[in-house]
């Protein structure tokens, strides 16, 4: 069995999460600058066996608020699929993960400055995307 990689794509930063090889435990990997995230993921995929990649995708009905974001996200997904031709890239609805991540960070008692850390928020969102996809929550 291989790992499953979770991605919370953003214009500036991208949160990443990954399962253990048995796909039981999800942990936050890192938050990467979006400009270099594809290279980071390719490098990771060369070191670790990946079975699937799950990308958070806001399935918005009607008009997207930020068309630039949609274009960049769609371009990133296409490049990801071309880079990992033998690994399925699955889109998972992530419309509420940032809100859920903020609520979770508050519930576990993180201090205000910790909750404002955008990298932590992106990483937590990536964890939630993967946990929800796997049915853990």
Keywords:
137 residues, alpha/beta, Nucleotidyltransferase, domain 5, five-stranded mixed sheet, 5 helices
CATH fold-type name = Nucleotidyltransferase, domain 5
Compute the number of strand runs: 5
Q: Termini separation (Å)?
A: 22 Å
Would you state the CATH class? Alpha Beta
Main sheet characteristics: 5 strands, mixed
Helix percentage: 40-55%
Give the class from helix and strand content and strand pairing: alpha/beta
Shape assignment: globular
Gyration radius (Cα, Å) is 14 Å
Strand content: 15-25%
Give the overall pLDDT as a whole number.
86
Task: Please mark out the parts with pLDDT under 50 across 5 or more consecutive residues, or reply none.
Answer: none
Please list the strands of the largest sheet in the order they lie side by side.
3-2-1-4-5
Domain unit count: 1
By CATH, the superfamily comes out as: YqgF/RNase H-like domain
Give the helix tally. 5
Give the SSE order as H and E letters: EEEHEHEHHH
Describe this structure in words.
α3 (97-107) packs across α5 (118-134). A 5-stranded mixed β-sheet has the order 3-2-1-4-5. The chain has a single domain (3-134), classed as Nucleotidyltransferase, domain 5, CATH 3.30.420. 31% of the residues are buried. 44% of the residues lie in helices and 25% in strands. The chain is built from 5 helices and 5 strands; from the N terminus they run βββαβαβααα. It starts with a strand and ends with a helix. It is an alpha/beta fold and 137 residues long. It has helices at residues 37-47, 67-83, 97-107, 112-115, 118-134, and strands spanning 3-8, 13-19, 26-33, 50-57, 89-93.
């Amino acid at each position: 069995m291989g790992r499953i990689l979770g991605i919370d794509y953003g214009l500036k930063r991208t949160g990443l999460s990954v399962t253990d090889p048995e796909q039981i435990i999800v942990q936050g990997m890192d938050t990467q600058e979006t400009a270099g995230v594809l290279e980071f993921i390719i490098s990771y995929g060369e070191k670790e066996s990946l079975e699937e990649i799950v990308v958070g995708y806001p399935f918005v009905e009607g008009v997207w608020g930020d068309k630039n974001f949609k274009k960049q996200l769609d371009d990133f997904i296409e490049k990801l699929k071309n880079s990992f031709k033998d690994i399925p890239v699955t889109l998972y609805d992530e419309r509420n993960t940032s809100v859920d991540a903020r609520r979770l960070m508050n519930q576990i008692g993180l201090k205000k400055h910790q909750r404002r850390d955008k990298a932590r928020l992106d990483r937590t969102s990536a964890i939630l995307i993967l946990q929800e996809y796997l049915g853990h929550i």
